Structure formats: C-alpha cells, structure tokens
C-alpha cells in the first residue's frame, strides 16, 4: 500500500430496527452515495438483540433528525418525487433513501446548500428581505398552478394539516372531512391547488451570502392540494410562520404579514375571519 493512501473509515448508526452504515469505501455495494460528504451508505436490518449503542450527539455533522412525521398520510418522499417531476425554479432536497420496518418509515434526504432564511434574517438589508418575500410569493403562485381534484396529498391520501382540524377535537385528516371544513369557511372547493403549507423562515433556504436570490424549500410533510383560499389565509393566522430573529424595530410576524400583503395583490383570498370563528 502506498504510504500516502488514506485509511478507510466506517461508522454504524442504530436507527430503530435498522443499521445505517457510512463508509469511505466507495467501491462497496451500497444503498446510495452522497456526494455532499463523499461517503457511501448502506441500510440493513439490525440483529436481535441489537448491538450496544451510545446516544447520537446533537451536533453530529452527518446524521440529523429533522422531524417525526404523521402516519397514514402521503409520504414526504412521494411528495418530493412529484415536485421534482415538475422541474420547479427552486431547489428541494433529494431523496437519498426511503425505508420502512414493521413500525416506522425512514426518509434520508440530502441537504439543500445554504442557510435558513431565519438564520440569515438579521444579516439582510431591506432590499433582500423584500426580495425573498417576492420569491416565496412566486413559489406560491407556481405551486398553485398545479391542480388537483381532491383535498389531500399527491397520491390521494391525507395531508396532516392540523389547522384544518378544530381545536380540542380529534384530528381527522380525511380528504372529505377537510373539504367539509373549508366549505364551512366559504372557500371555493370546486378545484384544489398545490401548496407547501409551511413556508416559514425555517423552511426556506437562501444563499450563505445573497447574490443570485435563489431559494430552496424544505420540509414537504404537509404539502398537498388545498383550496386556493387557504394559501393566504394560513399566512394571516399561524404564528409558526413568524420570524425567529426579527430585525431591530420589526415584529415577529413581519415575514408572514408582508407575504400575505403581496399575495393579496396577486389575487389570493383571505378567509381568516371565517377560520377564527370556526376554530374558536
């Protein structure tokens, strides 16, 4: 062996009933290869009993738990595959691997380069802040051009939109139930349009240093077909879309307020008063 050859590295992670192995040996037959860290990954069933483990550190640079998804709904992998087929103008994560065991499903995604708009916000001037408002409204308009016949996911299953289930009741995400709710609010349900439904600053990826104004969109768990009237209405209502770090003199709701104002100019309806009467 050459004295300059690099030693191969291998690392195992126990995830549920599965073992995720990362290796620098790219010649191995593996489930997938991730160019971001130049490693191959293989997913196999864990033995019984499972091997000894230590907790995964929160600052692990490669393995990050992003979220725990709802069961019984359209999978994020299915939604992302649909979005990729449309060849949108924004970036989205790539599905590296989608796996299931007896009790869980596991989705491994690539990282969209850049940083979240929430992290970048304190460093942005007014021009860039409004430019990203414009970019997200353009994204909403693009998605709204994709039509569906059922209020739900791209495969006809449900979407876990908790703000269309009344507070204090059992969450019922069946398409027919959510349609009934939207009709009670006066929304037009004769057709449905595609919507990300969670376009807060934490799910919008921007350049580390603003240059071209390109954006990425992550976290497609609740995306699906909804009445067009829900798009602007959700920005009017939901504090989860607020800024985590507003600038000096800004309110936390500056982001969603400016987005909904521009959506109004682009012809999107507001049903927030009807929603509040129904919700409370």
Describe this structure in words.
By secondary structure, the chain is of the alpha+beta class. The protein folds into two domains: 101 residues, no CATH class; 165 residues, Aminoglycoside 3'-phosphotransferase, Chain: A, domain 2. Helices cover 26% and strands 18% of the residues. It has seven helices and twelve strands. The strands form four sheets. A four-stranded antiparallel β-sheet has the order 1-2-4-3, with no helix packed on it. A hairpin with a 4-residue loop joins strand 5 and strand 6. Helix 5 packs antiparallel against helix 6. It is globular and about 55 Å long.
Tally of individual domains: 2
**Level-2 CATH architecture of the largest domain:** Alpha-Beta Complex
State the distance separating the first and last CA atoms: 71 Å
User: Regarding CATH, which class of the largest domain?
Assistant: Alpha Beta
Structural class, from secondary structure content?
alpha+beta
Strand order, largest beta sheet? 1-2-4-3
Which blocks of ≥5 consecutive residues have pLDDT under 50?
Answer: 1-7
What is the N-to-C succession of helices and strands?
A: EEEEHEEEHHEHEEEEHHH
Major β-sheet profile: 4 strands, antiparallel
Number of helical segments with 4 or more residues: 7
Helix content: 25-40%
Radius of gyration: 21 Å
Number of strands: 12
How much of the sequence lies in strands comes to: 15-25%
Pfam families: APH
Protein name: Aminoglycoside phosphotransferase domain-containing protein
Domain Aminoglycoside phosphotransferase: 73-228
Comma- or semicolon-separated keywords:
280 residues; alpha+beta; Aminoglycoside 3'-phosphotransferase, Chain: A, domain 2; 2 domains; three-stranded antiparallel sheet; 12 strands; globular
């Amino acid at each position: 062996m050459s004295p300059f050859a690099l030693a191969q590295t291998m690392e195992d992670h126990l995830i549920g009933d599965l073992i995720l192995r990362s290796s620098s040996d790219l010649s191995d037959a593996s489930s997938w290869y991730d160019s971001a860290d130049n490693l191959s990954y293989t997913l196999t069933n864990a033995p019984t009993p499972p091997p000894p483990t230590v907790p995964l550190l929160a600052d692990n640079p490669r393995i990050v738990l992003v979220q725990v998804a709802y069961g019984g709904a359209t999978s994020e992998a299915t939604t992302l595959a649909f979005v990729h087929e449309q060849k949108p103008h924004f970036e989205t994560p790539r599905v590296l691997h989608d796996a299931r065991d007896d009790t869980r499903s596991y989705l491994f995604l690539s990282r969209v380069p850049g940083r979240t708009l929430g992290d970048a916000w304190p460093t942005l001037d007014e021009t860039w802040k409004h430019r990203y408002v414009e970019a997200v409204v353009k994204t909403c308009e693009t998605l709204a051009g994709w039509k569906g016949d059922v209020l739900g996911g791209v495969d006809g299953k449900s979407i876990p939109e908790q703000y269309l289930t009344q507070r204090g009741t059992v969450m019922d995400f069946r398409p027919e139930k959510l349609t009934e709710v939207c009709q009670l609010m006066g929304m037009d349900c004769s057709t449905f349009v595609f919507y990300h439904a969670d376009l807060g600053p934490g799910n919008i990826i921007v350049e580390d240093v603003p240059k071209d104004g390109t954006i990425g969109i992550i976290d497609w768990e609740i995306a699906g077909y909804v009445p067009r009237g829900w798009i602007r209405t959700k920005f009017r209502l939901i504090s989860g879309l607020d800024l985590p770090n507003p600038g000096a003199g800004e309110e936390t709701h500056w982001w969603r307020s400016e987005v909904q104002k521009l959506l109004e100019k682009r012809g999107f309806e507001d049903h927030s008063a009807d929603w509040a009467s129904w919700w409370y």
